[in-house]
Amino acid sequence: MKKWFLLFLALPIFFGACKKASTKACTYTESALVAPAAEIAYLDSALAADGIAAMQHPSGVFYTIDSIGTGVNPGVCSIMTTTYIGNLYDYAIPFDSYTDSAGTSLTLGSLIVGWQKVLPLINAGGKVTLYIPPSLGYGEVAKRNGDGDIIIPAHSYLKFRISLLGVF
Questions:
Q1: Mind spelling out the 3-state secondary structure of the chain?
Q2: Which CATH number goes with the domain that contains 127?
Q3: What is the separation, in whole angstroms, between the first and last Cα of the chain?
């Protein structure tokens, strides 16, 4: 009888330990933000002047898909592994990059709208170049580094070269 009683007490502990930890629900939602016509026209003109044939997303982001990839494409709540290089559109020196072959993990919904709009168009293993108008990037806010220096001035047009290594 004692054996059955101990077994009866041990079963809930055993099965409770196997229960998966609850995961936090995703709080990100897709942005409905669209760049103003003046920003889109300026970026379209600049790309044409530079001989860049890019597609335009309805939001106003321009992009070129270098490789579509074969894996899963990300959603707003997806955690992705990426490598990237970002610079001001008219300035070749990167303001930010992560080029380690292992990549860095980012949640799509936590990133600037320009990334959120175009990355779902490619799959894991894909590569894309984004040309982002200011309102879909950092907008009216200057982005500063840890020392307080401005690395992205307000109202900047951005360019990102992104490799989407994985989607989880």
A1: CHHHHHHHHHHHHHHHHHCCCCCCCCCCCCCCCCCCHHHHHHHHHHHHHCCCCCEECCCCCEEEEEECCCCCCCCCCCEEEEEEEEEECCCCCCCEEECCCCCEEEEHHHCCHHHHHHHHHCCCCCEEEEEECHHHCCCCCCEECCCCCEEECCCCCEEEEEEEEEEC
A2: 3.10.50.40
A3: 48
pLDDT of residue 24: 75
Bridge partner residues of 88 (DSSP): 158
- Locate 42 and state its tokens: 């300026």
- pLDDT at residue 13 above 90? no
Interatomic CA distance for residues 137 and 112, integer angstroms: 5
* 34 lies in some domain: yes
131 domain-assigned: yes
For residue 122, CA distances in Å to 86, 108, 125 come to: 18, 13, 8
Distance CA 63, CA 11 (A): 56
Q: Give the structural domain span for 133.
A: 25-167
Looking at residue 3, its amino acid is K
Question: pLDDT tens digits for 38-61?
Answer: 999 999 999 999 999 999 999 999
Task: Give the model's pLDDT for residue 2.
Answer: 52
For the question of whether the overall pTM of this predicted structure is more than 0.90, the answer is no
